[in-house]
Amino acid sequence: MNVKIDPMSKTPLYQQLIQQLLFEIATGKLQNGDPLPSIRDLAAQTKLNLHTVHKSYKELQKQGIIAIKPNSKAIVKKSAEAKDVNLQQISIKVEQIICEANVLGISEYQLQQMFHKSLQKYYTQR
Question: Which mean pLDDT values do the consecutive 10-residue runs of the chain (126 residues) have?
Fold first, then answer.
């Protein structure tokens, strides 16, 4: 797994890690049932604090994207299980992005281009 964290970014480290893990899942590099690295191993690989990695895993668990079983590794959860839970959350996030873009003066065309570029990035790499 190739996870890269930018310590100079304004995005919090735990959110960067979440995004990187979501990318790995979205592009098929991590699939249903695949184990994730242990918190300790991923912290060492990314040079992040154990608590930061734990926070990222907990957030992904809360979203239904991974499962963490006591005394075992975290695993990628079957996407169909997470779909119903996350559809409403994703809809809310998309609406928030649209509102923020509008307030910032980003045109509908520019926003469509951004979405199109992101969709190509995530849906053509499978």
Answer: 90 95 88 93 95 96 88 79 67 91 96 93 69
